[in-house]
Amino acid sequence: MERTLIGELNTKEGQEVTIQGWVSVRRDQGKMVFFDFRDRTGSVQGVVLPKSEAIETAKEVRNEYVVSVVGMVNKRPEKNVNAGVQNGDIELEVKQIEIISKAEIPFELGSEVNLDTYLDNMPFTLRTPKQKAIFKVQAEIIKAYRAFLNSEGFTEFQAPKLIGDDAEGSGEVFEVKYLYDKTAHLATSPQLYKQIMVGVFERVFTTGNVFRAEKHATTRHLNEYTSIDAEMGFIKDHTDVMDMETKLMRHICEHLRTTCNEEFKLLDAQVPEVGETIPHIKLREAQELIFKETGKDKRNEPDLEPEDERWLCEWSKREHNSDFVFVTHYPVSKRPFYTYEDEQDPGFTKSFDLLFRGIEITTGGQRRHNLENLIEGAKNKGLDPNNFSYYFQAFKTGLPPHGGWGMGLERLTAKFLNLANVKEATLFPRDINRIDTLLSTDKKE
Amino acid sequence: MERTLIGELNTKEGQEVTIQGWVSVRRDQGKMVFFDFRDRTGSVQGVVLPKSEAIETAKEVRNEYVVSVVGMVNKRPEKNVNAGVQNGDIELEVKQIEIISKAEIPFELGSEVNLDTYLDNMPFTLRTPKQKAIFKVQAEIIKAYRAFLNSEGFTEFQAPKLIGDDAEGSGEVFEVKYLYDKTAHLATSPQLYKQIMVGVFERVFTTGNVFRAEKHATTRHLNEYTSIDAEMGFIKDHTDVMDMETKLMRHICEHLRTTCNEEFKLLDAQVPEVGETIPHIKLREAQELIFKETGKDKRNEPDLEPEDERWLCEWSKREHNSDFVFVTHYPVSKRPFYTYEDEQDPGFTKSFDLLFRGIEITTGGQRRHNLENLIEGAKNKGLDPNNFSYYFQAFKTGLPPHGGWGMGLERLTAKFLNLANVKEATLFPRDINRIDTLLSTDKKE
After folding, report:
1. How far is A135 from chain B (nearest CA, A)?
2. A29 contact B CB<8A
3. What's the pLDDT tens digit per position in A244-297?
4. For A395, which residue in chain B has the nearest alpha carbon?
5. Which residue ranges form the domains of chain A, and what is each CATH number?
């Protein structure tokens, strides 16, 4: 018999159906056996009556067994209706159970485990409703991201990850043994390729893995993550980029409200409201404000510290009722060589960070589009312009004023859902002591 | 004045507008100067009359200069109408030109150049209508790919590229110097993660870069490419996967027909028709056919050679009017350890290749879902099961019968457009002697 999805059972009352899925829970109750079955569309309760020909098999079946079940879809008696729960008003009276795959579980699914145990057992621990909700939300974020940019005339492109040299001249890069003993590196961002592509399509975006060889052990850093990037030509300045990102964030939030309502409820999180504009403040003004209000003098610091980011987000929420805030005009010294210096504010750049719920989720800004100016920027950072001759071709053959942003999909997901650690929003996190379980690399030592 | 996109000029007749874009061509004709301007939405002809205040600047402007132009949108006189060409019935009478960025080009854009020159100058050579058409088509393929799989209940996920060991135990892998002198590798496919995720979402897909450390110098191989992968649970056998891929290819083709008509025309290529089913044939039957029809005896070969793939595609076109053909049942010896062996046909697998216009574009099949059977498969390939303990967790905790496919986005694009070399459909190809121009790695030697 054709498989019926569990999500469609509520239209099959009084019919015999075949479902296929996993056993989430088995409960013995006297001579009857109850099950919660699940498939990709949801859950349903099954009951095996003592007289059912399935009763013997039912007693063998354990949690996480994969089964094919023939049963009758019955309405539950009024008193047993589980209101507000999927299929809470029906029940599957099990006629036959076929075991497709057996299972042996390390602990009960959904048990409270610490993060290391969770990560060490992800092929299993990812199966809980909460974990599935996190990665459903992540899939919807990236879907909304692409749909919005497509609607604004951006073209997607595929950026290489094997590169000659470190693009940004900043982050630490992983070295790769390339063919014929050449040395390549792993891209820390698609930045230079995005800019090249502005010369082709004006507006481009790309999504994909990037790599950072940093020995962090924090709740916000990863050694490999999904960077969702965009770049646009013919801008007035960085504020055009900020306006586009504001519309993007509004679109993503609207999409999440319509597609992930259940998931946000399950995770006890709220989709933020994004107004017509997001408040923005210059770094130096932000530091002045922090000094005035908290007495902490960071007015000469080149960047915000985590506690400053948290404070500014609280301020933005309090004063502007916004979960987001742009901070602009970071000093030239703290930004990559291609960042545009503000002629009106020498020493500071037309760049921005977007902060959200206490943390930076985007870095962006206007870029230098004039070749001489760009080369000067590289030299000032001690970089050898000869290393960038491929990239420079785009500028030599004519590029308009342009800018863009990059953001980490995992961090964005974590902040939307108020997760304490970015690793909870990552499949499968790489960090200082983890590549899966590192078993396979350990053996090589 | 607000920028008007060139694609909207045909609605602005008799109005003064500002356009911004590149100069594709400048032509002097007596005392007048003609231009072709382009932006991301298309091209338009501009004319600078001798009396125009823009005439002096117009004479300075060269190809690929980025300009902002104020002009009047005029109807062309009947005899000058360029029918069938975008904006062929209008002309921009230029009032002012502002040079935004100057340009210096290595050769005329669109000149016939050899592949190496093309690749060495991609930041410039990508700007021709043909190259833009190729990567527009590529963007639409991946968009259609995701949209179809979403509509079939597949969930997207992000697969890591830094892995402990070589997943497939076959292709050569690149080594990465990981943190604390550990050794990691670059994924040759997301295979094992896809299978893990079947336990979570049943149906999943992922798109992203994969890496092959092979010293190929062919028209069909790359050392880094975009793999578009899918995996689905609760299948009957490999034919369910083939059916899903048939529907996918039909959807992609329909999408290309509606969105990329101009691009296919420009590149002189046809979008193939995909029927209700795609013909399929077992490897041994195919070899028998080849022997019978050509006299070449390859009936004991474990795989098809390129000439066989070409012959089978011609046969499929001739006999079944199909540009596509599935070849199934490759021997166990030629397939990765996780491939399902056909109980009815021992020594052969429930696997398939999809051939399209003379070349394999997909490898797929059913996988082993029983842990003992999977471990046996690994051992038979001389692999140490201990290296796969993370992956095995998914099987230990219950996986249904499942299967899927992987395909290379660049190769698929190249075949849709009849391009001679896959590198023509790749941004930015990595091969035995190319990472961009390898300038930056050369200096390290």
Report:
1. 7
2. no
3. 999 999 999 999 999 999 999 999 999 999 999 999 999 999 999 999 999 999
4. B103
5. 6-101 (2.40.50.140), 127-426 (3.30.930.10)
